[in-house]
Amino acid sequence: MIDLCTGNGVVPLLLATRTRADIWGVEIQERLADMAVRNALINGLEHRLHMIQGDLKTIHQTLGHGQFDALTVNPPYLPVPNGEQNVNEHYAAARHEIHCTLEDVIAASAKLVKAGGKVAMVHRATRLIDICCLMRKYRLEPKRIRYVHARAGEEAMMVLIEGMKDGKPEIRTLPPLIVYDENQEYCKELKEIYYGGRASLEFSAEATE
């Protein structure tokens, strides 16, 4: 498995509680990539979590074409000209398409997964059409979509989408994920994901800054 735009490595850490597969994490920012390495070490997972500082646009030259069964990615959401960029360069790079565009992310994903491999992405719901069009352009057939709503009755803010390399055209829309329940607490599903997976994990002091 491989996680692009891995940041401090939280997604590979959570995945490690659910699979025995080896997991690679790719992060272009040196400070965040260093955190990811340290978080793997802190949790004794350095033998399974391989954190790399690198550019996702060229990482296939190092890791090879079609080497992965599954890929996850939480890319920057905003095109550079839109929105107010954060004055902190690290946050700006995480939020805006400074180092990579949405097309860069999808093109890189298509190179890394094998035929039948799956690409799972979280992005803003407003970019769904762009995502689907680009996935098809790079032979990643959209297969499953799930909208994420902050609260019941509110517009979807995020979308979870999974594509399959060289998959047949057919898409399923899953039940929506409602983040907060009527008590303004995380829903049961998210509590299991966050607290069930993270309960046994430790993070470097800088990881939450």
Describe this structure in words.
- This is Methyltransferase.
- Residues 17-104 form the Ribosomal RNA large subunit methyltransferase K/L-like methyltransferase domain.
- InterPro entries: RlmKL-like_Mtase, SAM-dependent_MTases_sf, tRNA_Adenine-N(6)_MTase.
- Keywords: Methyltransferase, Transferase.
- One of its GO terms (biological process) is methylation.
- By secondary structure, the protein is α/β, with parallel strands linked by helices.
- It is 30% helix and 26% strand.
- The chain contains seven helices and nine strands; from the N terminus they run E-H-E-H-E-H-E-H-H-E-H-E-E-E-E-H.
- It has helices at 10-16, 30-42, 60-63, 89-95, 102-112, 128-137, 188-198, and strands at 2-4, 23-27, 49-53, 68-73, 113-124, 140-149, 156-165, 172-173, 177-178.
- Strands 1, 2, 3, 4, 5, 6, 7, 8 and 9 form a nine-stranded mixed β-sheet that branches.
- A hairpin with a 6-residue loop joins strand 6 (140-149) and strand 7.
- Helix 5 packs across helix 6 (128-137).
Give a brief description:
It contains seven helices and nine strands, in the order βαβαβαβααβαββββα. 30% of the residues lie in helices and 26% in strands. The radius of gyration is 17 Å and the shape is globular.
Descriptors:
209 residues; alpha/beta; 9-stranded mixed β-sheet; 9 strands; 30% helix; SAM-dependent_MTases_sf; tRNA_Adenine-N(6)_MTase; transferase; methyltransferase activity; methyltransferase
